[in-house]
Amino acid sequence: MKASAFGYARATSVVNALELLVAHGDKAKVLSGGQSLMPAMNLRLISPELIVDIGEIAELRGIGVRGDILSIGALTRHVDLLRSSEVAAHAPLLKEAVAQVAHPAIRNRGTLGGSLAHADPASELPACMVALNATIIVRGQAGERRIAAEDFFTGIYETALSVQELLISVELPIARKNSRHFFHEFARRRGDYGIVGLAAQAIVEGGVFADLRMAFFAVGDRPVLARAAKKLINVALTPAVLLGAATALGEELDPQQDHQASASMRRHLAKVLLKRCASALLGRPDLNAGRLV
Q1: What's the first-to-final CA gap in the chain, in angstroms?
Q2: Which residues are 8's β-sheet partners?
C-alpha cells in the first residue's frame, strides 16, 4: 500500500513553516526525519493534504551548553546524539537510550523532535525527557511556549503541541554532581519495540537517593513518571523497602495487553526493572538477590 496523494512544501525558515501550518491547520503534517510519518502514510493510517518539510531549517539543528542547560535542536538526528561529546558528558542517559532506538538506518534519519512529537508510548526518548526533567520548547505565530516534558505527552501519539505549532528544541539540566543514570528495556530482539522499559536519573549522596526520577515506557498511554520512586528517596534501602516500592508501582501502573505481552507480564517486568535500577544505581548487588514477588 502507498500513501494517498498529497501536496508538498519545503519550509525555508521557522516563520515560513508556521505560516504553512496556520494556513492548512490539521490538514498538514510536519516532515522532519520521516521515520514514523512515512510508514503511517503508506499504511494510510493518516492522509494529510500537505506535507511541510522542515528538514532544511538549519536553526533547528545543533547541540550546545549554556550555563547549566544542555540545549538540543529538534532536527538533531539520533546519530548526532550518539556522537555528541556534550550529550555524553552532560546527559549520558540520553546517549545510552538512543543506542537502543531501532536500527542504524532509522537512527541515521530519525530526529529528536520527530520522536517527541510522534509520542509513541513505547519509545525510548520521550521517557528520557521525563526522567531528565526536560523542558520542551514549541513555537507558534503567537510566540513561544515552554512545556515540562511530563506535561507534554498527553496520550497515545498525543502531545500538548497544537497543529499550528512547531517543536523547536529541548533543554535539559546538565548532570549534577553525584548524578547517576539507568536505562534498560525488555524487547524480543534488539531494535524491536520495547515490551517494558525504564529510564532513570538519580542523585546519590551517602549511599542513599537524594533524588530519583523513574520514567517507565510501554506500560501506559505515555511515559509514566513513577510515584513509587519517592518511597526510595532519603531512606536506607533494604529489601523490604524495595519490595514496598515495587508493590506500590504495581498498583500504580495500568498497562495494556497486546500481541507482545499481557498487562500482568508488563507489570511484573516493571517491578523487576525498579529493583534492578535501584541496585545498579546504588552499587548494591545484595538488593537484586532473589526473586522479586
Answers
A1: 46
A2: 51
d(C-alpha 286, C-alpha 289), whole Å: 5
CA distance 128 to 140: 25
For 279-293, write each residue's pLDDT tens digit: 999 999 988 764 544
pLDDT score, position 289: 60
The C-alpha atoms of residue 156 and residue 134 are separated, in whole angstroms, by 20
Q: Which residues contact 270 (CB under 8 A, 6 or more apart)?
A: 196, 198, 216, 219, 249, 250, 253, 255
In sequence order, the β-bridge partners of residue 268 are none
Radius of gyration of the chain (CA): 20
Tell me how far the alpha carbon of residue 256 is from its chain's centroid. 19
Query: Model pTM?
Result: 0.95
Query: How far is CA 25 from each of CA 22, 148, 262, rounded to the nearest angstrom?
Result: 5, 24, 38
